[in-house]
Amino acid sequence: MSDLPWKNALLTGASSGLGRGLALWLAKRNVKVYAAARRLDQLEALKAEAGDNIVPLKLDVADASAAFLAVQKLDQDCGGLELVIANAGVGEDTRPKKLNWDSVKKMIDVNVTGATATLTAALPAMIERKKGHLVGISSLAGLIPLPQSSTYCATKAYLAMFLESLRLDVDKYGIAVTSIHPGFVKSEMTAKNKPGSMPFLLETDDAVERMGKAMVRKAKVFTFPWQLSSIISLGSSLPRPLRTPLLQRLR
Ligand SMILES: NC(=O)c1ccc[n+]([C@@H]2O[C@H](COP(=O)([O-])OP(=O)(O)OC[C@H]3O[C@@H](n4cnc5c(N)ncnc54)[C@H](OP(=O)(O)O)[C@@H]3O)[C@@H](O)[C@H]2O)c1
After folding, report:
1. What pLDDT score does 10 carry?
2. Is residue 190 part of a domain?
3. What whole-number distance in Å separates Cα of residue 23 and Cα of residue 44?
4. Domain containing residue 237
5. What's the CA-to-centroid distance between 242 and ligand 1, angstroms?
6. Residue among 12, 15, 18 whose CB has most ligand 1 atoms within 8 A, to mutate
7. Structural domain contains residue 140
8. Exposed (0-12), middle (13-18) or buried (19+): which is 156, by Cβ within 10 Å?
9. Which residues make beta-bridge pairs with 85?
């Protein structure tokens, strides 16, 4: 018997970082977690740590049509997904002088197309059941333009707007939609950044706890940590002639 509002969950990007942490957080509270990613060995290690509440699922969300069908089938096979978390994401430098098309495409494939496939595959069935919770892991970077991050910021802004708009349609069917915007959190993704370049950096477990609680209370939008979130919302409200030179200095 689950200790949380959901008996099961599909979670993408469960092989490392925030996804791995969220999988453990949910599994410890008796939610059956379909833990998806490409690295099956990492998912098996997760299962060895957390037990039978983890069900490893090899899934490449960059192949969005295949991922869509796989999630749809999982929804049918498991008797109905109750929580779907599109967490899989990639973040790479896109400074224009060294622009690498493969990086740009990968971010769009995973963060935009893959996340959308993950979140929509079970949606018609959820609507029929009048039950379900969709969660997307966007970023504070989706709320403000940042240098050297044009594609990443744009993909995260897409996800936030997708979720905000979707909520307008599905609210009436009892489907909850949560958009989560973390600041800097320790993970494989941020390990490549210079230490000191990430203000208010959080430990993974701390971030996971905050995200888990936001999902339980069905937050519509959850931004954290508040310090960075406040700076970003202040920055966004500045007129462009003031904002642009400030943002350019972040380089
Ligand atoms: N850490 C931060 O500071 C931060 C801040 C804001 C938002 N976020 C967002 O939080 C989410 C998790 O990131 P993280 O920091 O935990 O990074 P991470 O440790 O690098 O984890 C990324 C996860 O995404 C999965 N993934 C990547 N490409 C995939 C693909 N094609 N198909 C399926 N899974 C794929 C990876 O699994 P495989 O490689 O095994 O497939 C991995 O499990 C991302 O959406 C990220 O944008 C992170």
Report:
1. 98
2. yes
3. 12
4. 8-248
5. 33
6. 18
7. yes
8. buried
9. 11, 135
Q: How far is the CA of 159 from the centre of ligand 1 (A)?
A: 14
Q: Is 173 a catalytic residue?
A: no
The answer as to whether 45 is a domain residue is: yes
Question: For the whole prediction, is pTM greater than 0.85?
Answer: yes
Question: For residue range 97-140, what is the model confidence (pLDDT) as tens digits?
Answer: 889 999 999 999 999 999 999 999 999 999 999 999 999 999 99
Structural domain contains residue 3: no
> Measured from the CB, is residue 17 less than 6 Å from ligand 1?
yes
d(C-alpha 49, C-alpha 171), whole Å: 36
CA of 190 to the centre of ligand 1 (A): 10
Q: What is the CATH number of the domain that holds 242?
A: 3.40.50.720
**Tokens found for residue 188:** 């494989």
Counting the structural domains of the chain, the total is 1
Q: Is 110 in the pocket of ligand 1 (CB under 6 A)?
A: yes
Q: Residues 43-69: pLDDT tens digits?
A: 999 999 999 999 999 999 999 999 999
CA of residue 132 to ligand 1 center, whole Å: 23
Distance CA 202, CA 240 (A): 30
Residue 135 β-bridge partners: 85, 178
User: For the purposes of burial, counting CB atoms within 10 Å of the CB of 61, is it exposed (0-12), middle (13-18) or buried (19 or more)?
Assistant: buried
Among 38, 190, 206, residue to substitute to test ligand 1 (most atoms within 8 Å of Cβ): 38
